[in-house]
């Protein structure tokens, strides 16, 4: 049994499980809002969004698979152990109890439940809903060995059926033609770049390496122990999950663009979804959307809490997995009450910092497989990319902070970097660091051979 291959049926469920963990709150509201804003430029925006929203998560899963890493820490320690510890802890706390996980309950409430609650009771009901939501997440997360059953075989298939009903109805009975809708804001001049950066909001490139530990453990629990076969199954599950995501992202963006034929531009994607659900299904649409949103967020919450608990327990084994998931589910029940706009605003600086580092780590892991030595390549690529990533973080701060003396000076320096204003100021420095590190490794390898 130790050398068995994963059965096709089980591989499909693992892929669906991984999709279910990926596809949560932001995966619904961001692409449909992007589509409404992009209008007749929706296809370039979709391509940009898919590069970060699908391409990077797939590369993240591939990096975990081909390096045979057990998780983020194993992958990041190729830079060095101090960086691996800091990066792993920061990543899991950002996409876990501090920012991403609280957003799940907030989106479920704002999009699915809010319209049923009298205006004077919103604060109280949100607090009660947050507690009940994360209590449910905690109950599902108590046994990580059952996550494929909960997420892959029950929650995700139910979610896909209900979302499919809404999406297919909107696609076959469009409110307008996407090509006839004018684009708004930066989508007028830079639709691909804007879509690329918008894909950051899904947090899936970060989640791809964060969820690696859950996928690897699930595959091993199914009887596959050989590292090569675990790696192969991990990559194939990643392909299944990201293909599903890509199809749904494109569909959501298109119906978002088409919605302009019946509705004015909305403030966020949640409003667009609510308008479409009510238009096509009347009063029943509100309940349909509430169920879709809650299921989407619930299954992702289970994945995030489980991944957080397993990773933190492995890093700090004196604290049990059960205690870590209490933290991972308890804190978001409090932070969810900040509200969706507040959480998104706080998230942007952290995403602007972590995303470049995650991309550097993922791409370096994949490319270095063809290099004879890797010791310095990881380190130099990350060293050269770290400062620009920090400067990129500052661009996510509120405008009032950006104009403060010292921060304004740092941003002025950042603007000297090529592509900085487009959010890619870290690319060329990281590439230079990679080349320097690869050259050092090459010379060291040649000296060893001689």
Automatic annotation (TrEMBL):
Q: Which InterPro entries match?
A: Brnchd-chn_aa_trnsp_Livcs
Q: Which GO terms describe its molecular function?
A: L-isoleucine transmembrane transporter activity; L-leucine transmembrane transporter activity; L-valine transmembrane transporter activity
Query: Which Pfam families does the record cross-reference, listed alphabetically?
Result: Branch_AA_trans
Q: How does it sit in the membrane?
A: Multi-pass membrane protein
Keywords for the protein's UniProt record, in alphabetical order: Amino-acid transport, Cell membrane, Membrane, Transmembrane, Transmembrane helix, Transport
> What is the annotated signal peptide range for this record?
none
What cellular-component terms does GO give this entry?
plasma membrane
| Subcellular location as annotated | Cell membrane
Q: What is its main location?
A: membrane
* GO process terms (BP): isoleucine transport; L-leucine transport
Q: Has keyword Transmembrane?
A: yes
User: Which residue windows are transmembrane per the record?
Assistant: 12-34, 46-70, 82-100, 120-140, 160-185, 235-255, 287-309, 321-347, 353-371, 378-399, 419-440
Q: Which family does it belong to?
A: Belongs to the branched chain amino acid transporter family.
State the protein's purpose: Component of the transport system for branched-chain amino acids.
Its recorded name reads: Branched-chain amino acid transport system carrier protein
UniProt organism field: Schleiferilactobacillus perolens DSM 12744
């Amino acid at each position: 049994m130790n050398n068995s291959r994963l059965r096709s049926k089980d591989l499909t469920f693992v892929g669906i499980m991984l999709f279910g963990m990926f596809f949560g709150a932001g995966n619904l509201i961001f692409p449909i809002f992007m589509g409404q804003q992009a209008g007749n430029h929706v296809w370039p925006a979709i391509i940009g969004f898919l590069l970060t929203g699908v391409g990077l998560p797939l590369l993240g899963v591939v990096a975990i698979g081909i390096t045979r890493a057990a998780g983020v820490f194993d992958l990041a320690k190729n830079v060095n152990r101090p960086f691996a510890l800091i990066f792993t802890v920061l990543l899991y706390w950002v996409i876990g109890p501090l920012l991403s996980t609280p957003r799940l309950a907030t989106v479920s409430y704002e999009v699915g439940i809010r319209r049923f609650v009298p205006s004077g009771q919103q604060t109280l009901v949100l607090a009660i809903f947050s507690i009940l939501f994360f209590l449910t997440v905690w109950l599902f997360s108590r046994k990580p060995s059952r996550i494929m059953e909960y997420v892959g075989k029950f929650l995700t298939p139910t979610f896909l059926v209900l979302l499919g009903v809404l999406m297919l109805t909107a696609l076959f009975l469009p409110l307008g033609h996407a090509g006839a809708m004018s684009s708004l804001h930066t989508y007028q001049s830079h639709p691909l770049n804007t879509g690329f950066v918008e894909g950051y909001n899904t947090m899936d490139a970060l989640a791809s390496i964060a969820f690696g530990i859950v996928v690897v453990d699930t595959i091993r629990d199914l009887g596959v122990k050989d590292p090569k076969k675990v790696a192969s199954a991990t990559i194939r599950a990643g392909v299944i999950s990201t293909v599903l995501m890509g199809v749904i992202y494109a569909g959501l963006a298109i119906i978002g663009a088409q919605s302009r034929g019946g509705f004015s531009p909305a403030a966020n994607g949640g409003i667009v979804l609510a308008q479409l659900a009510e238009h096509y299904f009347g009063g029943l649409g509100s309940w349909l959307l509430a169920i879709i949103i809650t299921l989407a967020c619930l299954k992702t919450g289970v994945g995030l809490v489980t991944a957080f608990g397993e990773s933190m327990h492995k890093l700090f084994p004196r604290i049990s997995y059960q205690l870590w998931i209490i933290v991972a589910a308890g804190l978001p029940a409090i932070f969810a009450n900040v509200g969706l706009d507040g959480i998104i605003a706080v998230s942007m600086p952290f995403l602007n910092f972590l995303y470049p580092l995650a991309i550097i780590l993922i791409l370096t892991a994949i490319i270095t497989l063809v290099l004879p030595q890797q010791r310095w390549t990881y380190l130099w690529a990350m060293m050269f990319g770290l400062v620009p990533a920090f400067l990129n973080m500052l661009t996510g701060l509120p405008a009032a902070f950006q104009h403060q003396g010292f921060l304004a000076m740092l941003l002025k320096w950042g603007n000297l970097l090529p592509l900085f204003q487009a959010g890619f100021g870290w690319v060329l420095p990281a590439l230079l660091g990679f080349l320097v590190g690869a050259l050092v490794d090459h010379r060291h390898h040649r000296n060893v051979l001689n």
